[in-house]
Amino acid sequence: MRPFLFLGTRAEDAVAQQEYDAVLAGCGLRPDELVRVRLERGPLGEVDLADWSGIVLGGGPYNVSDADDAKSPAQRRAEADLHDLAVRVVAEDFPFLGACYGIGVLGRLGGGIVDRTWGETIGALPIRLTEEGRADPLFGPMPAEFAAFLGHKEAVARLPEGAVLLASTDTCPVHAFRLGLNVYATQFHPELDPVAICDRIDAYSAHGYFEPHEQESLKAAARQSIVTEPVRLLGRFVELYARA
After folding, report:
1. Theoretical Cys-Cys bridge with 198: which of 173, 180, 219, 235, CB 3.0 to 4.6 Å?
2. Residue 226 Cα distances to 44, 79, 122, 229, angstroms
3. pTM of structure
4. How far is it, in rounded angstroms, from Cα 15 to Cα 205?
5. Are 122 and 100 in contact (CB under 8 A)?
6. Is 57 within 8 Å of 105 (Cβ atoms)?
């Protein structure tokens, strides 16, 4: 099997490792089958799509809607590299699954708009599939409604031209969409479980996702949440796209 490529942007080593391990387990792959590149550390470099079965992009603290003068050099570099890769991926309809930050990377293509209109507080919410989502090869095996962990400042305010809306919540209209047949983005995190989201709440407590006094109550609510279905998307992605 050709390996999959995992792209991360988290500077915090413990959280970055936890994210990779969770995606690895959800995909059902070995480390040599899910090769990681940490974009916050250096340039992406040349990616020959023919070398890979597919690409998975993790989340992180970067927001494409951040003011340009507030973006670090590492963020600007990662954003430029991911934009160039996304243009190629969409043009070739190459298998791609971007979680959370994938919304920002793909959501601004083709006239799409990503802004701060539909941000959601960290926690678990019910995700509902659209009719197109229920018929989609990746999302179709999922329940029509399932709980997922999320937490984001920005979201898609207008879908890119030709995008297919796959899932929504009551408080965010675009939680998943598809471009072409094989390029996907989710606003929610398919890899997260209660332990991991509590660790992220601690790691990003000063990043403006919530008020400081909310930290412990958000963790308590997360521990009580039952989130079992989203991780299936990772295994399904591998099932659909693993190539000899």
Report:
1. 219
2. 36, 33, 15, 9
3. 0.97
4. 13
5. no
6. yes
